[in-house]
Design brief:
The protein is of the alpha+beta class and about 550 residues long. Helix content is about 25%, strand content about 20%. It has helices spanning about 15-20, 60-70, 125-135, 175, 190-195, 250-260, 270-275, 310-315, 320-325, 360-365, 395-410, 425, 435-440, 455-460, 480-485, 495-510, and strands at about 1-5, 20, 40-45, 75-80, 85, 105-110, 150-160, 160-165, 215-220, 225-230, 240-245, 265, 285-300, 370, 380, 385, 385-390, 415-420, 445-450, 515-525. Strands 1, 2, 3, 9, 10, 11, 12, 13, 17, 18, 19 and 20 form a 12-stranded mixed beta sheet that branches. The longest helix has 18 residues, at about 495-510.
């Protein structure tokens, strides 16, 4: 399955963290060593995925952002209760503290003094201004410039202050502008990149210099990425001396490596593997609500799925409770909308989930003029319902889900051609033949992560089609786009929730995507891991006290 991130938003209720469950002793505690195979102060983990590069400006993979939150430079990060706090900014700009002007059009960042990059060079406002200009540079292969394109003027009154004059209010700045919560670009070191015409092919992308508790030491392609404690980090040294991301694209292999004691952690573990590992010696399971959801995206620019009736029929022909039971092994949350039920922008008025109803799906297609042919596959106006579905390699549980869907959809006259891609090709820019951003699919099986604030524009707005955003659906609903634009002027949770409710209502009506299940944050962890209490918004933002 693809793991991607959008512009993350809001703050989970404290009850969400209380729902986190842990099995086994030692996890999060301070007891003695449990396992003889533990390597003191070295954490080895995997996500069952490979990476394309390590620069958040050019990559939206969740796997990469796990590392980026520990290594890269961020103005704002998020604590274990999913609340924003100043990292390189001394405080989070708000209207109350004067960081945001009363009209919402001026944003002021005050920066920390005495901070150094992981190569020892000093950090200051020059780096922030350079990074903003990098995002706005049309030659840079940024995934999205949503929000950034509203910056009218950049002022640097001194080396520790940056002032942004906006064309209009833009409340999602809290997440979008150099925060760790989602697919957002990080602050870049001007002293290393300032002389380049763009950063697209910089050697930096393979081993970035950042500002975090860890720094990149080595990327052995196809093997692992090694991160070590950053001696220049302004908060001091973390307790872990090394963190190794092991590149293991196959979920079955990750399971084997955990059981062989070659790994200490697996993050975002599907239910099938949680059940297999729940009684494994020396390992513990952690789970809590999260902001991510599995879904099937429709490329609405393709004739096969441009008809909303076809998309609605496919949703009725998708048995999501069975997917949760058989594929998720009872893990996950059944929901109709993308917003997680623990978020402030969740809309309870939207139906929990459309029922599984093959008869209704067939009726809708019959009424819409889709006629079954001799082979049982429906067609209309010369368009045959043979759909190309894109997914990633090395995910047998996802493949099992697709086969279930194939069996259900066959009953309504729809045929699937399934194509597996390595994540590097799936996430490549359209100019490099990328599947996702090149729109080379009718259906895409993927996972998204939303943000703590509720900004949905980068995923669903009409002006966010790739390469200018992440709206791979090519869905354009004017009412939803107006609501997403209004969201920019909403600086309170209540105002933002009203706008998000419109978007999610239109998503339900048009069905450009099927939310198959709301994902829990799931970890399998060596019982010797201590003080690991992840926030749901950004699980690896606060790693200073984590140890093994």
């Amino acid at each position: 399955m693809i793991q991607r991130f959008g512009r993350l938003a809001l703050i989970l209720a404290c009850a969400a963290l209380a729902a986190c469950t842990k099995s086994g002793t030692g996890v999060g505690g301070s007891g003695g060593r449990v396992n003889s195979w533990t390597i003191p102060h070295v954490l080895r983990y995997a996500t069952a995925e490979d990476i394309t590069n390590l620069n958040p400006h050019l990559n939206t993979q969740g796997t990469m952002f796990t590392m980026a939150s520990m290594t890269m430079a961020w103005l704002i990060k998020f604590d274990r209760k999913n609340m924003p706090y100043g990292e390189l900014a001394t405080e989070v700009p708000t209207k109350a503290n004067g960081g945001v002007s009363p009209d919402g059009k001026t944003i002021t960042y005050h920066l920390r003094k005495g901070v150094r990059w992981s190569d020892g060079a000093p950090f200051n406002a020059d780096d922030v201004v350079f990074s903003i200009k990098t995002v706005l540079n049309p030659a840079t292969n940024e995934i999205s410039r949503s929000g950034w394109n509203l910056i009218q003027k950049i002022d640097e009154p001194d080396k520790y202050t940056v002032v942004l004059q906006m064309q209009k209010p833009y409340s999602p700045f809290l997440v979008t502008f150099f925060s760790s919560a989602g697919a957002n670009p990080c602050v870049l070191p001007k002293h290393l990149l300032g002389n380049l015409p763009n950063i697209n092919n910089a050697a930096y992308n393979s081993l970035p210099v950042g500002i975090g508790p860890f720094k990149y030491k080595q990327w052995l392609r196809g093997q692992k990425v090694v991160m070590v404690a950053n001696p220049y980090y302004f908060r001091g040294l973390p307790k872990l001396k090394e963190v190794d991301f092991e590149i293991i694209p196959s979920r079955d292999t990750v399971q084997t490596e955990l059981q062989a004691h070659s790994l200490d952690m697996w993050y975002r573990v599907p239910g099938l593997y949680l059940r297999r590992l729940e009684n494994a010696p020396g390992l513990a399971i952690m789970r809590q609500p999260g902001f991510e959801f599995d879904h099937i995206d429709f490329n609405t620019s393709h004739a096969t799925v441009s008809d909303p009736i076809v998309r609605e029929a496919l949703e009725y022909a998708t048995d999501r409770p069975t997917i949760r039971a058989k594929i998720g092994r009872g893990f996950g949350i059944l929901q109709e909308e993308p917003a997680p039920s623990v978020s402030a922008y969740y809309d309870p008025s939207i139906a929990k989930q459309k029922p599984f109803d093959i008869a209704l799906a067939n009726k809708l297609l019959d009424q819409d003029g889709w006629k079954p042919g001799p082979d049982g596959i429906r067609s209309k106006g010369g368009v045959k319902l043979v759909l190309d579905l894109a997914t990633t390699s090395g995910t047998p549980d996802a493949d099992n889900q697709i086969e279930l869907e194939r069996s259900w959809w066959k009953q309504i006259g729809v045929s699937l051609d399934v194509h597996h891609y390595l994540s590097a090709l799936m996430f490549a820019p359209a100019s490099a033949g990328g599947i996702l951003y090149g729109g080379k699919f009718d259906l895409l099986y993927a996972a998204w992560g939303l943000d703590p604030l509720g900004d949905l524009s980068n995923l669903y707005a009409c002006n966010q089609f790739p390469p200018n955003g992440q709206n791979d659906l090519h869905w354009c609903n004017q009412r939803a786009s107006r609501a997403m634009a209004d969201f920019y002027s909403a600086f309170t949770p209540g105002e933002r929730k009203k706008d998000d409710a419109i978007v999610m209502t239109e998503l339900q009506k048009d069905t450009p995507t099927i939310v198959t299940i709301g994902l829990e944050q799931t970890f399998v962890v060596n019982k010797d891991v201590k003080n690991f209490t992840p926030g749901a918004a950004v699980p690896f933002d606060n790693m200073m006290d984590v140890d093994i």
